[in-house]
Structure formats: structure tokens, C-alpha cells
Amino acid sequence: MEHPPPMARDNYVFTSESVSEGHPDKLCDRISDSVLDFLLAEDANARVACETFATTGLVVIGGEIGLPAKDGRPGGERLKDVMGRIGQIARDSIRDIGYEQEKFHWNTCHVLNFLHEQSVNIAQGVTGEAGREQGAGDQGIMFGYATDETPELMPAPIQYAHAILRRLAEARKAGEEPLLGPDAKSQLSVRYEDGRPVGVTQIVVSHQHLDPKLTSGDVRAIVEPHVRKVLPDGWLTQDTVWHVNPTGAFVIGGPDGDAGLTGRKIIVDTYGGAAPHGGGAFSGKDPTKVDRSAAYAARYLAKNVVAAGLARRCTLQLSYAIGVARPLSIYVDTHGTGQVPDAAIEKAAMDVMDLTPTGIRTHLCLNRPIYARTAAYGHFGRAPEADGGFSWERTDLADALKRAV
After folding, report:
1. Active site residue 292
2. Which residues contact residue 297 at a Cβ distance below 8 angstroms, ignoring those fewer than 6 apart?
3. 17: how many CB neighbours lie within 10 A of its CB?
4. Which among 91, 226, 265, 313 is annotated as catalytic?
5. pLDDT number for residue 77
6. Which of these is catalytic: 17, 21, 25, 333?
7. Are 35 and 86 in contact (CB under 8 A)?
8. Helix 24-42 and helix 75-83: axis angle, to 10°?
9. Chain-centroid distance, C-alpha 324
């Protein structure tokens, strides 16, 4: 006996979280992406897989990097010239985030650099003997997602969870909120009616504070006005339940309170759990790594599908094999909101964009030092910038997709 497909729920509550730039894992993402930017500024063809670990008074940087030969100088020799600058890049990142604590200070923490040259076995899959790119830097699956429930075509819970922390960070750095520290988390439980977000049932904000005498109520008095400025009118009501520093004091923050590691906040970085994730992290990886570049391309295509009016929601999956240039597969699911068959969108996506690693990097101009700014508050749902930052958020493929279907 055949059963009808399950109906999408229209009325429900969905929750997503965000973490601030001072969260230990995000601090590590920031350092890794700052190293990446530094090396891409040295050479647009730099190969970078940089990982960072941070704990009390200590930052450890490791991974594989490579610079191509240039002007008669071998890549290994060029790397030796830049290695001595890695430690200062880490310190500059920590200082910008704002850590000047006794046990974690940008100027006094130990920074250990264990970066080394990229494996020739990995390099051979990406670059041929004549320097011609051959294929993806690794195998894997990548997902992109878009929905029309916010102007940025992002899921509302993650978009506004990010916005709260960005607002608080801006106020802290501007000197408006001198009692706040760099480490923070937010979480929003958003109520949906008829499939559209209409309000917040529960909100969590845990924010580091510099005065140990502050109570949870004091911290709420600081953060609540900023939260209200960020959320849409009417989303906070007398029935919204607030949890601000629910465990009490939050004075010890950042790597002194909890160890951090690059790549541990992949759901925060993407769609807050509202869409599938292929499992690969972004930060510290140059755009030959399809974990990063193809995830950006998948978001770009999914967003343009929704911007074109072809669907209200779109999930798009790509898959790759190491050393193989073209994607092994493309899959589209418009969750019953599509105006044309999903298979037609799959074909159109392949027609309007070269989805080889080289094609993605060229189309989205990814071989630029544009990545440190992505390390906190989400890689998606951000405005495209004049220097090419967040290029995957453009909607300039919408007309081409409409023509292709």
C-alpha cells in the first residue's frame, strides 16, 4: 500500500544558536582565517589548511601551507620568509577581538607555530606539472540553502541570533558597553505560523561581563535594549521567556574558560540546523578546498533560485572527489515550493555556472584575502562587499536561472 508524502508542518517552534567572535572556537576560526588572508595577500595561489587551538595563555597553530615558486624562488624558500609573521597575526586577531585578561592576553599569551609545507600527495590532485589545476582538493558533500522568510533569504532563527551578537560586539568595541567582555552566546526559539516566523518564545543570551558584582538582572538590563533593536517589531512579547546568564556570573571567558579549536561551529557558520550540512568546516581553508568554495557556490545557487522566484525554499547539494574537477552530482529540493520541477533547476544550475573548483573560484573571485571577516556571525546572510567579500551572497544569477528553466 502506498502512503502519501508527509505534509510540511506550518505551525512549530524552531531554535538556532550563535556564538560571538570571542567564543574560544570562533577566536580560533579568526586566527586561522587571518593566516589564510595573509598568505593569499602574498600569493593568490597559496594553499592553506590552517588549524588553531587555544587554551589558557596558549595558542597553537598547525597545518599545511604552500606557496608556488615565483621569480626563480622555490615555494619552500618563500614560505620561510613569511613564517616569522604568523605569531603576530595571531596576536593581532586576539587584540581585535578584545582579550586583555590576566590569563589570556594578546600580548602575553604563548603562540606556537607548527605550520609546515603542504603534502605533495595532496598537492598533486590539485595542481598538475604545468601548474594547471586538475581537480577538487578533497572529496565530500556540500549543501546550500535559502528561504524567503527573511530579506537576506536566510532562516530567521540563525539570522537574528547572529544579529544580536554582532550588535552587542559593535556596542562593546565602540565603548558603549564597557562592562561586557568578548565571549558570548545567543539562542532564539522562533515561533512559526502558516510556515512564517512571527515571534520569539524563548531567548537565551549568555554574555561575559568584566565586573564580577554584576547579577544576571544587571546583564539583562545591558543587553536587552540591543536585542530589541535587532529583532522585528512584535517578536518579543510579555510571553517571551528570557534566560540571561542563567547560571549566574560569567567573568572568566574565552580560551581561559574553555579550550577552543578551529572548525567546531559548523552549524553556527551555516544555517543554524535548518538545513543539512556535509560536515566540512570552512575556516583556515583556501578555496581549492571544496569544503569551503563549493559550500559557498551551493549557497549562491540556492539563494539565486529563491531570488528568481523559482521556489520559496531551496536546498542544493554538490559532491566532489579529490583530483576530479567536475561535481559528481547535483541535487535540488525545493520542499514543495518550486514553480518548476526540481530536476529542471538542477540542470539550470549546471548550465549557468561552472562548478569545477576553478570555475567557482573565478566566478566568485575567491582567491582574495576576504576570509577573516567570515569567521564570526555566519558565512551566509551577509551583504556582498565592494572588494569581493561575501560574493556568494549576490543574486546576479537570478535572471539567468529563470531563462535556463
Report:
1. no
2. 142, 144, 318, 353, 355, 360, 363, 364, 392
3. 19
4. 265
5. 86
6. 25
7. yes
8. 130
9. 25
- The answer, as to whether pTM is greater than 0.90, is yes
- Per-residue model confidence as pLDDT tens digits over 30-88: 999 999 999 999 999 999 999 999 999 999 999 999 999 888 888 888 888 899 999 99
Rounded distance, CA 333 to CA 355, Å?
18
Grid cell of 348 as nine digits: 539550470
Active site residue 51: yes
DSSP H/E element including 48: strand 47-55
Whether 25 is catalytic? yes
How many Å apart are CA 331 and CA 99, to the nearest integer?
A: 43
- Cα–Cα distance, 69 to 107 (Å, whole number): 34
Catalytic residue among 38, 143, 250, 380: 250
What's the CA gap between 320 and 135, in Å, rounded?
9
CA distance 67 to 43: 7
Dihedral angle over CA of 142, 148, 152, 154, nearest 10: -40
d(CA 21, CA 30): 8
Is residue 104 among the annotated active site residues?
no
318, β-bridge pairs: 142, 330
Which is nearest to 370 in space by CA: 21, 134, 36, 19?
36
Residue predicted with more confidence, 332 or 76: 332
